[in-house]
Amino acid sequence: MYKVLKGMKDVLPTESARWRAVEREMRKAALLAGYKEIRTPVVEQTELFARSAGESSDVVRKEMYTFLDKGDRSITLKPESTASVVRAFLESGLYAQALPMKLYYVNAPHFRYEAPQSGRLREHHQFGMECFGASQPSADAELIVLVVNLLKSFGLKNLSVRINSIGCPSCRPNYQKTFKEYLDQKHDVLCKACQERIEINPMRTLDCKEEKCKAELVDAPVMLAHLCEECTDHFTLLKKYLDNAGIDFMVEDRIVRGLDYYTKTVFEVITKTPQGELTVCGGGRYDGLIKELGGPAMPAVGFGMGIERVLMILDELDSEQLLLQLEEEQPQVFVACLNKSLAIHAFEMMESFRSEGLRAEMDHQGRSLKAQFKYADKLGAQYMAILGDDELAKGVVKLRDMSNKEEWEVALSDAPAALKERLSK
Hints:
Blueprint: H1 13-32, E1 36-37, E2 43-45, H2 46-53, H3 58-63, E3 66-68, E4 74-77, H4 82-91, E5 101-111, E6 123-132, H5 137-154, E7 159-165, H6 172-186, H7 192-200, H8 211-216, H9 229-244, E8 249-251, E9 263-273, E10 276-285, H10 289-292, E11 300-306, H11 307-315, E12 333-337, H12 343-355, E13 360-362, H13 369-379, E14 383-387, H14 389-394, E15 396-401, E16 407-411, H15 415-424
Parallel strand pairs: 1-5, 7-8, 12-13, 12-14
Antiparallel strand pairs: 2-4, 3-4, 5-6, 6-11, 7-9, 9-10, 10-11, 14-15, 15-16
Helix pairs in contact: 5-9
């Protein structure tokens, strides 16, 4: 028997309703904030991610699914969406339209070849938002507030927002020089990956997950102490926006994020679980990425949120805490017929119910009437519409409330509207 690949997962019908409910609320939140949906291909040129994420990132160095296609071109399964959205923004000329341009994506598949972890598979899906052309920290704050309110609307309570500023091309080089001198003294006690990062992008050592490196770098100089006036003002104003919005946050000077394109603001939204803290969402500002990928100099800010991780956390909530409303899937009516010769009439009746917007089903296996009732009960049908030779001769259908066994007859032509009215009460 074939099995799903390691790090991949099927979303079965018993789970898909939860996915749709989460995606529905994500779309609603994005649309309320003026964001419009964009969908980008699952594969891109490898160079797009190498240039955007940075050669020092773990994504590029270890995690990308990269291969040659039949045209001998190097292509990569999308490890993240920001670069793809920027590429589409430039290629389609959206930068020439009214700015800021606000775009979002939902249920976007991403692929990273890494050990599967809690809520993070090799194929995982993200909800993300990208704002192009907005330089003010109000755009940063807008996204952070939106994320917090969205997660709270699902029922999550143990949320914390952590923010940092990692500077800009004006102030970061001086810090990098100071930090590299510090790291050179620690070179031999750091892990091999960090030793490589010292030469490529020293700040990425702060993102190391090795406990030994964390301990060795506990007294490392931080970017916040080296910000230029512009970055300082931006960060100060961001904190004011968040304070005014009632968002509890803490400044965490070790947040650098895992991709090289970030500038100024970086942030993470964390939740506490029985297994410890989990990052639900991460993002920040990337003011240089659009120009790096061949476009005009333009500020930008965005975030990505793993849908699997959100669903995993929601699974751990008590039912009374969960505020997410799932759409109903059970049939509102099941059309049963006394014998096979009436199946064609049952089919017509089923379609008439559906034309009124009702979820309707019928038997497709030639079951007996008794077996049809059992099947309808397993499906959770609210009502039965029963057709027999006598009913058909009189031009009526018998409706049955499955909850209390009440039965009554309605004219065939009136049945859909009558049932729809009853369901609305």
